[in-house]
Amino acid sequence: MKIRWYINCLLLFAALLFGFVVCEIITRLVTTTDAKGQAYFGKRPLLPYRFPVQMVRRKMEHYLQRRSEAYVIDDPLLGWTIAPNQTNVQGMYRSNSAGIRSRPQEYTQSPASGTLRIEIFGDSFTHGDEEPFEKTWGYFLEKYLTEDGLSAEVLNFGVPAYGIGQAYLRWKYLGRKFDPSIVVFGFQPENMKRTVNIFRSLYSRNTWVVFSKPRFIINPEGELELLNSPVIPPEEVAEALENFQGSPLSQYEYWYNPDNYHQHFWLKSRLISLIYTFFSEYRPRPGGRQDHRSGPHYWDIEGEPMRTSLLILKQFAREAREAGEISIILHIPKKNDLKLLERGNTPAHYHVFRELEKEGIIVVDPALQMKVEHRLYKHSHFSSKGGRIVARALADAIREILKEKNLTRKFLLTLPEDGK
Description:
The termini are far apart. The model is unreliable at 415-420 (pLDDT under 50). By secondary structure, this protein is an alpha/beta fold. It has a domain at 66-196 and 300-411: SGNH hydrolase (Rossmann fold, 3-Layer(aba) Sandwich), CATH 3.40.50. The protein has 14 helices and twelve strands. It has helices spanning 2-30, 53-65, 124-127, 137-147, 164-173, 191-195, 200-203, 237-242, 270-279, 304-322, 335-342, 350-358, 367-370, 384-404, and strands at 32-33, 39-41, 44-45, 72-75, 79-82, 116-121, 152-156, 182-187, 215-218, 224-227, 326-331, 362-364. 36% of the residues lie in helices and 12% in strands.
């Protein structure tokens, strides 16, 4: 009886082992592995994650070979920027000699007397991705102000894929050299996630921007401190990623969760790795909802992304005021924000607006005018219809600001008399 029990146990164990081996073989057949050992089920990376070194190296080599033709190029202080006097491959975007998106058009260091110079800063929504220049909200802003009788010009300093820290630095290093009267910071809430990022490829695995970027932290004294400046040269980014676990920068990369890169012995089984990845409690993805360093969620008002972003915006407004410029924080709502507002919910990032307004910083929010409209976006960015609504709300706010500060007459257009 005892012998039969042992035999049954052995048979059961053999059957289970055989079944596991068969499933392991099948799993390995339906999954793939790249040169660095990162396993994938379709496009979904499996735990443990590995750094996207091969992808970065491949895309960086392609970029370096064609750098002279690139519209977006590496920059030692900003991470990346718009190349001077360049047109993108599709011919939709053009820049002038200062790397400002334009018709193209050159701008003098100071505006003509009586001209209201406005500069706009931000990411691809400010740059006007997916639309020609004449359909961007920056263009419409200038058009509406001119139609309202003001002598105005708008300089577009937006750069695709920028975080809040980069937009602030672009104003600091370049924008204020052009002597603006008003500076507009396009606040797109997803940018708070980019604020605490150093290697964009860790936040977005399919990114075309494979550079590193400067990163602000809040030091123990509660002040902003800039890291990775100047940034890692493009030729060294892949190697820096390959050795990232031992790098001093690793403790400041928000989108690097060391636990998800730990090579547990049991994850050597592709079957267990697949099951664990898809059925673990948080189902993390590289750069995804739970794949970040320990601490509050990025929409938490006590979380590092929101606190750091808020401090950058406050510093931008303070320095602009000291330079004699009027600063405006413009809300750039995404589709999900409008959906939340339509359901009567307030997006978490509205905490930032409340805190800014407490300090007298001007916030313009076109979301209420947008949420009842349709076709405001193309694929991901504003359509010309969405851009017009944003520009109209901002133009109205600017007219009110000039009126309150008794500056309207200073920037009125001088029109010729009838018949002359």
